[in-house]
């Protein structure tokens, strides 16, 4: 495997003093952190779409990147070349996982049957390359948003024929994910939302989406797929309002349609900020409800109101994310998938390596910062002190359901004005700076 990135050797850990930009300075996969290898904590994955199908185009201009694996005039030969290039990249970068959309790995044909034949061919090739390299599939998903047929959504489309097409596409994508040993399957509703309520029956569309997800659960059981199903929250873009707006909206949706036992959440950093939340907020909400499954690791530009999908290099974000993930028990079937793309001006193939190395080093540092935060116990101790009133006396009675408004009124009359305590926010933020 030295055809598409011949100038790149296997990326290795060289330590924080290394001046080689094609080396890891902090990500040492075999280093033990809190009893596990760093690689097992982080479970890095490369996404197929931005990394190998994204060529720098944006709403104002076409592609800027030229790739030697994307030159054939025959679509399936391009797909084969891209798959070989991808596994060369995965291997040289040193990740253990990858992720794909169905339309990433195989171009659409003139009809569904022919498209599925193309998918079968590319699945066989992917399976062969997985066996040769030892890589695993973190999760698969479906692109039910790019084609013209999905202009008004997939499972929420006003046309039952489009609903049926989307179901057929998801069925096949779940099956090939299962065949490739995928550890999960993600539902990202790229156009499951609306632009105006003047032409939208919101209740009916949500009901249809709930039916669709229950059908997916049934099919998962039918084919014997044991991986997790994930829903990925996203608030907007391309529609004005996405039904999977944020973790809270997804949780409410799953509860309403009796899906909480069958789904977890795939949290993306950039989607969190588009929903006016922090990355950590979305992770904490998912973790607090037992729904944290996997993570799309990227970041957005706070000065731009769209999904910029930049590579994560913010140590505060990575440290706080890993602090939440570790305290929630870490990943099982999920991991850190770099759903990120090169900037339009980063046109050389080597930039793919620079970008992923930076992101992997950032999360490796975040992991070790989180380890110190947990081991020292400073933040946990402060949290316990702040909520200590709930552990005994009145607080314990309230949490045990042994209080009502009348008893609480009597308590307040007898005890008078509550004693207040400082939140110590500035002190805690300064302590955090000390770890970073």
A few lines on this structure:
With 436 residues, the chain is an alpha/beta fold. The chain has helices spanning 38-42, 48-53, 75-93, 102-105, 112-133, 160-179, 202-223, 247-256, 269-274, 279-288, 315-327, 350-376, 378-386, 393-399, 405-415, 425-435; strands at 32-33, 36-37, 44-47, 97-101, 136-141, 184-187, 193-194, 228-231, 241-242, 263-268, 292-296, 336-338. The strands form three sheets. The chain has an eight-stranded parallel beta barrel with strand order 3-4-5-6-8-10-11-12, surrounded by four helices.
Query: Under CATH, the topology of the largest domain is which?
Result: TIM Barrel
Largest sheet: 8 strands, parallel, barrel
Order of helices and strands: EEHEHHEHHEHEEHEEHEHHEHEHHHHH
Bin the strand percentage.
Answer: 5-15%
How is this fold's topology laid out?
Elements: E1 32-33, E2 36-37, H1 38-42, E3 44-47, H2 48-53, H3 75-93, E4 97-101, H4 102-105, H5 112-133, E5 136-141, H6 160-179, E6 184-187, E7 193-194, H7 202-223, E8 228-231, E9 241-242, H8 247-256, E10 263-268, H9 269-274, H10 279-288, E11 292-296, H11 315-327, E12 336-338, H12 350-376, H13 378-386, H14 393-399, H15 405-415, H16 425-435
Parallel strand pairs: 3-4, 3-12, 4-5, 5-6, 6-8, 8-10, 10-11, 11-12
Antiparallel strand pairs: 1-2, 7-9
Helix pairs in contact: 3-5, 5-6, 6-7, 10-11, 11-12
Binding site for Mg(2+) 2: 268, 271, 307, 309
Binding site for Mg(2+) 1: 232, 268, 296, 339
Main location: cytoplasm
């Amino acid at each position: 495997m030295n055809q598409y990135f011949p100038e790149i050797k296997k990326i290795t850990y060289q330590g924080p003093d290394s001046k080689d930009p094609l080396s890891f300075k902090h990500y040492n996969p075999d280093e033990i952190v809190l009893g596990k290898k760093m690689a097992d904590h982080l479970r890095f994955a490369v996404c197929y779409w931005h990394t190998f199908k994204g060529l720098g185009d944006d709403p104002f201009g076409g592609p800027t990147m030229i790739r030697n694996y994307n030159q054939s005039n025959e679509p399936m030969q391009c797909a084969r070349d891209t798959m070989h290039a991808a596994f060369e990249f995965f291997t040289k970068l040193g990740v253990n996982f990858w992720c794909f959309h169905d339309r990433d790995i195989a171009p659409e044909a003139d009809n569904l049957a022919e498209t599925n034949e193309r998918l079968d061919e590319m699945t066989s090739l992917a399976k062969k390359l997985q066996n040769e390299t030892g890589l695993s599939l973190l999760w698969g998903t479906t692109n039910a948003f790019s084609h013209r047929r999905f202009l008004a959504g997939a499972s929420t489309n006003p046309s039952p024929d489009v609903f049926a097409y989307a179901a057929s596409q998801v069925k096949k994508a779940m099956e090939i994910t299962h065949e490739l040993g995928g550890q999960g399957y993600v539902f990202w509703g790229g156009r499951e939302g609306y632009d105006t309520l003047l032409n939208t029956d919101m209740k009916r569309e949500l009901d249809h989406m709930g039916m669709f997800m229950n059908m997916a659960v049934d099919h998962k059981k039918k084919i014997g797929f044991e991986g997790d199903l994930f829903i990925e929250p996203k608030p907007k873009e391309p529609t004005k309002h996405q039904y999977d707006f944020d973790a809270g909206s997804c949780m409410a949706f799953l509860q309403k349609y009796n899906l909480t036992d069958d789904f977890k959440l795939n949290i993306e950093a950039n989607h969190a900020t588009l929903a006016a939340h922090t990355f950590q907020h979305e992770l904490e909400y998912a973790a607090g409800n037992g729904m944290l499954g996997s993570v799309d690791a990227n970041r957005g530009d706070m000065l731009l109101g769209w999904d910029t999908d930049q590579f994560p290099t913010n140590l505060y974000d990575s440290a706080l994310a890993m602090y939440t993930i570790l305290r929630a028990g870490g990943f099982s079937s999920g991991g850190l998938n770099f759903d990120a793309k090169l900037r339009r001006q980063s046109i050389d193939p080597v930039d793919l390596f620079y970008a992923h190395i930076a992101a992997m080093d950032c999360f490796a540092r975040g992991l070790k910062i989180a380890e110190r935060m947990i081991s020292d116990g400073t933040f946990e101790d402060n949290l316990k002190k702040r909520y200590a009133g709930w552990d005994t006396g009145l607080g314990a009675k309230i949490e045990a359901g042994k209080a009502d408004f009348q008893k609480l009124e009597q308590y307040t009359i007898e005890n008078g004005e509550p004693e207040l305590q400082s939140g110590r926010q500035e002190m805690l933020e300064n302590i955090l700076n000390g770890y970073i």
